[in-house]
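Example 3.2
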Amino acid sequence: MNLLNCTTVPTEANTDAGVAGAGVLLSFIITAGLSLLISCTIILTESKRNTEAIVLRKLLLSFSDQQIITGIGIQCVALAKMESMIPYHFFIVWMLSLLSTATHISSILALVNDFKRDWVLRWLRQFFMFVNLILSMASGIFILETVMKDLQPTLPIACVWEVEPHSAASNAGVSIAGTIAVMAGQAIFFALGVWYFHVQNPQWLRIVQISGLVVLIALGLGATIRVILLSQAFGSPSVKLKDTAEKDWSFGQLLPLLLLLLPVVSAVEIMRGEMQVPSPVKVEEKPLDSDSDEKDLLEA
């Protein structure tokens, strides 16, 4: 049964704390900020001191795994609710997907040798990257259509395929260009990330890492500023909402923040010697999935 109503334009829209609540937004922002900071620290520390930042590596890997899973999850929720979710919430989810992208790409730049140690981890990460890219591209198409057709902000975003096209707003050109640029940037980052997984001992490794982090920090800052200014939880929404539920705190909003403590617990266990973390593959070494290493392991 199709409950989509694109003819009656509501005067105000429902809130959705599940995707735009204060706790949800803070968890994405904090995770992305910490991941970018840790990535910079690992790259700069290991390049100067030639040491392994084991605790920081474990923290970064945990934050990255958590962010990419939650990023995929929240995008699936948005696409599943497209017949009831308004463009305001859909755009926030898309910005959160950009924070997810910045997090896991920065982790690749810093932990590429960790992923090269095991082909299962490497291909699993590439699979999640691909799923995140497909979902983000699908969301970007909805956002692009919304801008081009100037969809009423209180209508469900699925109505972009039902309403008649008409002239876009006067500033739509900038929004269209920005949306296309972000979508193209995500595709480029995915391609570079996959290439970076398989490239063998580049001489300009540090240049790629540092320049990539600079771009990712700019991307993360831009997405964070947009979320803070646009959301009801921290700024002024672009659409009239029925209540202020997205500002309210509950266990559902605290849970994403509490989950950020799990990587910290793992880091403490490593420092106490209760957990062992294998070292990353050295530049001059071959990964465990190479033919020679497999042969040695079988003979042993």
